[in-house]
Amino acid sequence: MPFPQERLRRTRQSESWRRLVRETRITPDALIYPLFVVPGRGVRHAVESMPGIFQLSVDEAVKEAKSAAASGVRAVLLFAAPARKDARASDALDPKGLAAQAISAIKESMSDLIVWADVCLCGATDHGHCGHIDAAGRIENDSSVETLAEVALNYARAGADAVAPSDMMDGRVAAIRARLDREGHTRTPIVSYAAKYASAFYGPFREAAESAPAFGDRRSYQMDPANAREALREVVADVAEGADLVIVKPAGPYLDIIRQVRDTVRVPVVAYQVSGEFSLIKAASERGWIDERAAALETLTGMARAGADLIITYFAPQVAAWLRT
Asked: Residue 14: how many CB atoms within 10 A of its CB?
């Protein structure tokens, strides 16, 4: 109907009306909170480039997980930065390694909290790359996949509710699924970083996870930011190999990818609002340039509107608390 019969502002005239007709809604149930675990006890070391985020010893990670759960967050994503780093990623393979300890401790403390374990080699290798390195300094895909499957099995045995391979090696989802199933972990879902781009927005994370590569970069295995069709090929391949959920990372610069992935597959789609996205909002807010709460909620709403079913975000406990008010 033409104006004046159709007046779209009628349902925008008050906050009550706006809330009533809102199309996209963020809930704490859809948020996953990343945690960074380091060796020691009583360690709560501030990550300088990520205000409000800390490197945590296992005991402090348990406390942080409890606090997040109390705010309404139902899942955490665990990253480990062990002191022991070598070419084999031995700590990630160790049943008594740092990640395995943290998984077990959190699950023993809060059985209802969902724990996703990031599966990669970068945090436990001395070279900081996501796979094994050959004599020429190249990433060895197939041997890396074998190790990643063993790491995933180690984390599943420790009690992880899901394993999340973030390495971007070809064929790793199928290898992990086969390894888990052979060992009786048929109920453990795989949350695949299916479309992970070689992004400029990862910088603060590398401080928190102590995972910066010692040489070169990760462009030979992470995706070119210019490519969209390739992302769909990655996602479709991972789902065919057994991925139960798929992640698009980063989120904000890739809303178009989230939308295309949502339209392509039937599994849940996860958006990862990465460290650089978080830190940009924090830095601008600290300078009084933007409203932190409004900006955080707007960006998360954009991700959900684009098609994300779940969102990994460092804002998770804050947002959960905001949504209660």
From this structure: 9
